[in-house]
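Async update (no meeting this week)

Hi team, since we skipped the sync, here's where things stand on the single-chain job. The sequence we agreed to prioritize is pasted below, unchanged from the tracker. I ran it this morning and attached the output directly underneath so nobody has to dig for it. Comments welcome in thread, and please keep replies under the output.
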Amino acid sequence: MNYKEAIGFIESVSWKGSVPGLERVGELCERMGHPERKVKFVHVAGTNGKGSVSAIVSSVLKEAGYKTGLFTSPHLIDYTERFAVNGKNITKADFCRAAEAVKNAAEGMADAPTEFEILTAMAFYYFAEAECDVAVLECGMGGRLDATNVIESPLVSVITNIALDHTGVLGKTEGDIAHEKAGIVKSAPLVLGKVSADAENVIKGACIKNNVPVLDYTLADVSDDRIAADGLHFRYSGRDAVLPLCGEYQKINIRTALETVSVLRDRGFDISEDDIIRGVSSVHWIGRFEKLSSDPTVIYDGAHNPDGAAFTAATYKQLYGRKMAVIVTGVMADKDYIGIARLLAPVAKCVFTVAPDNSRALPADRLAEVYRSLGVKATPCASVEEAVRLAADRANSESRPVLCVGSLYMYGDIVSALKNR
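Output:
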């Protein structure tokens, strides 16, 4: 199986979409000899912040000398981004071997696995074959019925936050969504990020039922945090540290991640303060208030729900004050795009809308209409490349930053468009 064939196999079941449930992935893992039982896991769920927290924890573990796997989603440019060991993405050769192993195991299954279930099984296979000491496993959409939840009890579970997203599947209220996310709670301690009172009650109820402790993100020994253009500056145990990820939300993410590290230390992992400082400073995670260009300044932030958009706007105001942005944006039609627009409109001088390359994308003209209704000049564009070109020209002429925000599915096209300029 070559790389093209491997991608073809994975995408051949895309028609199934997201089908919650553990029966298919459980059968698949059994047919593969249960590779998920050969690896220890840190299991991370939540609406926003999962990727950043996972990246921070895995980087610290790597610096401490542990062979560390990392499984995340979605990918922004290439499928290989989803699987990493010690900070290096899976090679295409190993990707093909993992895909072939899953394909062989899936043959004959009465109910074929979904795309995400195939990818999850590939991660289990890859991490087991690599003999990882530990792997950080990011949930996909939910928790309770998410394919990653087929694992037995992890070393520590994490719920980063709860916000309204994927409401058609996870529930209409934060309490409903918290119930789904809390499904990852097993016998391991849980680290809990910033959540509402309703969500906290649900999650803590699940922890009481499973007789496990809850560690709040505020317990982390982090202080004096401030956002700058080069990332989050803070003090950890009285020592200066820098997380090279920008965004107001990283103030919560760093605490959630370092409290998770604290639990791992309590569970016998030999992680020094030097390991933590080095691990935090070497985190690489794209698409989160990332500066893509300096002439003009182009920032990308994958805020695809109102909770994320609120943090994006707050970060932008802190860094750029009253200088309003030229915005490039596109979203999925099943998102609360009106809520997102309301939060971004106050920092927008003008908006160029696009339809990301995805069957679920909201048409650019419909999104433009929303911004116009909020009093913002909006221009629908036929492509991301056109939107980036027009936005960059406008930004250069008025000395403004370009803020690309919305669906993560835009990232690759935006990067490509900037290179083409």
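Quick observations from my side:
The mean pLDDT is 94.
The longest helix spans residues 250-266.
Reply here if anything looks off.
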